[in-house]
TrEMBL record:
Subunit structure as annotated in this protein's UniProt entry: Homodimer.
Protein name listed in UniProt: Ribonuclease 3
GO MF entry, a single one: ribonuclease III activity
Family matches, as NCBIfam families: RNaseIII
Catalytic activity: Endonucleolytic cleavage to 5'-phosphomonoester
Cellular localization per UniProt: Cytoplasm
Annotated Gene Ontology cellular component terms: cytoplasm
EC number: 3.1.26.3
InterPro entries: dsRBD_dom, RNase_III, RNase_III_dom, RNase_III_sf
Family annotation (PROSITE patterns): DS_RBD (PS50137), RNASE_3_1 (PS00517), RNASE_3_2 (PS50142)
Protein task: Digests double-stranded RNA. Involved in the processing of primary rRNA transcript to yield the immediate precursors to the large and small rRNAs (23S and 16S). Processes some mRNAs, and tRNAs when they are encoded in the rRNA operon. Processes pre-crRNA and tracrRNA of type II CRISPR loci if present in the organism.
Length: 244
């Protein structure tokens, strides 16, 4: 019964992929392997196949290469540094967990009982690995052209939505930029804290270097407002430098 139920769940996933993304796996075993954790196989010796780890290795390389090719073609006027910066943000494994959930891969992972009880199905580190394994499986089954078409739908389209901004550490980037010629004093200072209608609060923070205000930012926490201020300052400084 367990195997039959597992086969039914794979069919459900395949139907979902076909209807939402026009994806069709010829080799269902590859899709199953991408969603199979090692402990599941240990607990089900009757199940043939491998766990996701080899496909994860391949998927990592495919993601790096596919993203680099897309950015190279889309932004012909960007220099190497700017292309690298965006590529790094896009292939941050933290974003892969969000993509796994968007694709509902978390619902179909084959987990060992102990891992299931420990909440591994919602563990970001596992979902990041599963995303890469899924991409590796798709590459082997359908080839690079299909992978690129799929990534244009679910990943590359998010560039214009600002999706990858959340994975950039702008406070560190601003610090590196400001201290490239030597140490400077960087300070974040809260300016205000205002209540919102839904019982949330909005914080406003300014970032200063050597007592000079560079930019302000807002967020629903002091930390979020500091990141927003750092992002505004970094983008203003780098944009100004490019124009010179």
């Amino acid at each position: 019964m367990k195997i039959k139920r597992g086969q039914k769940r794979m069919e459900e996933l395949e139907q979902e992929l076909a209807s939402q993304y026009d994806l069709h796996f010829d080799n269902e075993q590859l899709l199953q392997e991408a969603l199979t954790q090692a402990n599941y196989l240990n607990e089900h010796p009757e199940v043939e196949g491998n766990d996701y780890q080899r496909l994860e290795f391949l998927g990592d390389a495919v993601m790096q290469q596919s993203t680099a090719v897309y950015l190279f073609k889309r932004f012909p006027d960007w220099d190497e540094g700017r292309l690298t910066e965006l590529r790094i943000a896009m292939v941050q494994t933290r974003s892969f967990a969000a993509l796994s959930r968007e694709l509902h891969l978390d619902r179909y992972i084959r987990l060992g009982r102990g891992e299931e009880l420990s909440g591994a199905r919602q563990r970001d580190s596992l979902l990041e690995d599963i995303w890469e394994a899924f991409i590796g499986a798709l590459y082997l089954d359908q080839g690079q052209a299909v992978v690129m078409r799929f990534l244009e739908q679910i990943l590359f389209a998010k560039i214009d939505e600002g999706f990858f901004e959340q994975f950039v550490d702008y406070k560190s980037k601003l610090q590196e930029y400001l201290q490239k010629d030597g140490p400077v004093a960087i300070k974040y200072q809260k300016l205000s804290e205002k209540p919102l209608a839904n019982n949330d609060q909005i914080f406003e923070v300014e970032v200063m270097v050597n007592q000079q205000v560079l930019a302000t930012g807002q967020g629903k926490s002091t930390k979020a407002a500091e990141k927003d201020a750092a992002r505004n300052a970094y983008q203003q400084l780098t944009t100004s430098a490019e124009k010179k």
